[in-house]
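Researcher: Re-running this chain for the archive, since the previous output was lost when a drive failed. Same request as before.
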Amino acid sequence: MSDQHDSLIKTPKQLIVTVLAAFIVPIVVIVLLVSFVTSERKTGAGGSGMTPEAISERTAPVAKFELVDANAPRTLKSGEDVFKAVCTTCHTAGVAGAPKIGDKGAWAPRIAEGAPTLFDHAIKGYTGASGAMPAKGGNTDLDDVEVQRAVVYMANASGAKFAEPAAPAKAAAPAAPSEPVAPQADANAVKAIAAINAGQAAGPAPAASTATASAGDDAGKKVYDTVCMACHASGVAGAPKFGDKAAWAPRIAEGLDTLYDHAIHGYQGKGGVMPPKGGSSASDDDVKSAVRYITAAAK
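Model: Regenerated structure tokens:
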């Protein structure tokens, strides 16, 4: 009895199809695999896996710089900015007879004098019957137009309708960097402030020249004589008087670092207001010297 096997290929046509399929199917599979592998986004050494935006941000330089024209006109501050930085010290609390912003009764006679007169007093300084106005509020770095804008801002908030001063046709270029110099205090303003507050004084304010401590700290004495004296000689706005040990004792107890911070950045306390750097453009180091000079005289 012989074995019989049934073959799937019974005709020559089926044989040809089978042979072709044996070659074509593997090739198609290989092509599809290669296409799949090569089209997949690789990470690591084979590819970044990052979007063009991410690549641009990652390859950007660490530090960026912008070319600035040193001769370009300076950008002038608005009246509100100048008020917040300089004028608020006196015109918010009414220090040394300064009319408070928004007080229409106090501003009315001043507004009646006209904007040009107020501009002149604010820029050059003025001593009146009820108070004193130091030139540019003690900050001589301000441009005249910036001071005028601050005057308009305060006056208009107090009942005036002054027009906003326009910027000059060509604003002055920033001055070349130089060693910071504290602005000179207006002598008449200092005298007037001292006279206004004379009633508050327990006795004559000690003269700076009589200080025995920190006499060698020339920078500190210079800043005191030109800036700090305006308030600390007579106790304006709650400022502790120069040489008053009782007034300075609790402040000295806080430590020099705290006093440095208050003097440089400004401070609002229960007893008064300390404007940043006394409203001057003195350097941080010079302000620190002034703090050491004043505190040494009260120990």
